[in-house]
Specification:
alpha/beta, Rossmann fold, 8-stranded mixed sheet, 3-stranded antiparallel sheet, 13 strands
Length: 326
């Protein structure tokens, strides 16, 4: 078995420094503007909770995307003909195997480049892939795809996979900048495989982010436990209610934590007290939903031409294969 190559672009302490900066900017903001990026949900406990969420009956996106990959991975392989596959936010690389099976069956995919911020998770996933796919060169990159796109290895034909609807966690200006940077990075013959969640009945959308068993509520509150452990904060997670809200104007779900009574909490790493008035909310995630036309338009504006789109009856989820247009 060939050992995986692991390239680390996050210096020791860099993630902690980023958390401190995000907390300073987001928690000390005026009432009505407090927020944190969703990346801080995902410590070991948060990752386990998210895995549990993907199996809930209300949470359709993971099942819908997986079904599309199973149905159309052969089509993706035939069109992309990629020798190198880069997956952004790869995690455990579970869905990657569907693509790798199809591409390897078509005589492609000589190298796989999973990218994630969690070094431990990525190392384990890379070792598992080396064992499962003899002859596949696995080049794992521990890094932030927002900052390290220019350091990702590429091949003769590279396909970048950005799955799970993660693009929806970015605001429109952030999406545009990220997609433009990616288009500039890719060359003729390269491609992007993008997974996007589609606009649907608001009741069904809210239920996916506010399940009856309360797993998503526990996942949302976990960010406070991360702050307690990493920044010496003293938040009481049970003093905050989980809120999932559909914003029809912006076509996205918001997850928030609402203070149940006035909360005053010292955060040692900030050297400051954070105050939430009764009912004040902390925005912890947005998850934008799209239409086919919107996906095509945003890709075109960023420098991509759509080669193919696949969804299913009911339009739960969309896979798009695109190539740089310049």
């Amino acid at each position: 078995m060939t050992a995986a190559t692991v390239e680390v672009h996050l210096a020791p302490g860099e993630l902690h420094a980023a958390l401190v900066e995000d907390a300073r900017r987001g928690l000390l903001a005026p009432a009505g503007h407090k927020q944190l990026p969703p990346v801080w949900f995902y410590d070991d406990h948060g990752s386990a909770l998210f895995d549990a969420i993907t199996a809930l009956p209300e949470y359709y996106p993971t099942r819908a995307e997986r079904a599309l990959l199973l149905a159309h991975a052969g089509d993706v392989a035939a069109q992309a003909k990629a020798s190198t596959v880069v997956e952004l936010g790869a995690g455990t690389c579970d869905k990657s195997r569907i693509l790798l099976d199809a591409l390897r069956g078509a005589g492609c995919a000589e190298r796989f480049v999973p990218v994630d911020v969690s070094e431990a998770t990525l190392r384990q996933a890379a070792d598992d892939l080396c064992e499962a796919y003899p002859g596949l060169a696995v080049h794992a990159v521990v890094g932030d795809f927002h900052r390290h796109l220019d350091r990702l290895p590429s091949g003769d034909r590279t396909m970048v996979a950005f799955l799970g609807g993660t693009i929806g966690n970015l605001r429109p200006d952030e999406r545009g900048r990220f997609l433009f940077d990616l288009a500039c990075r890719l060359r003729a013959g390269d491609s992007l495989l993008l997974g996007t969640d589609l606009v649907k009945d608001p009741g069904r959308l809210v239920a996916a982010y506010d399940d009856a068993a309360g797993v998503t509520a526990e996942f949302n509150r976990n960010v406070l436990r991360v702050l307690n452990r990493e920044l010496g904060a003293r938040f009481d997670p049970e003093a905050f209610a989980h809120v999932a809200r559909w914003d029809d104007e912006r076509s996205w779900i918001e997850m928030r934590l609402r203070a149940l009574g006035t909360q005053r909490c010292e955060v040692a790493a900030l050297g400051a007290e954070v105050v939430f008035e009764d009912g004040e909310e902390l925005l912890t995630e947005i998850s934008a939903k799209f239409t086919r036309d919107q996906v095509e338009r945003e890709l075109w504006d960023a420098g991509f031409a759509v080669d193919a789109m696949w969804d299913q009856p009911g339009g739960d989820f969309l896979l798009t294969l695109a190539s740089p247009s310049c």
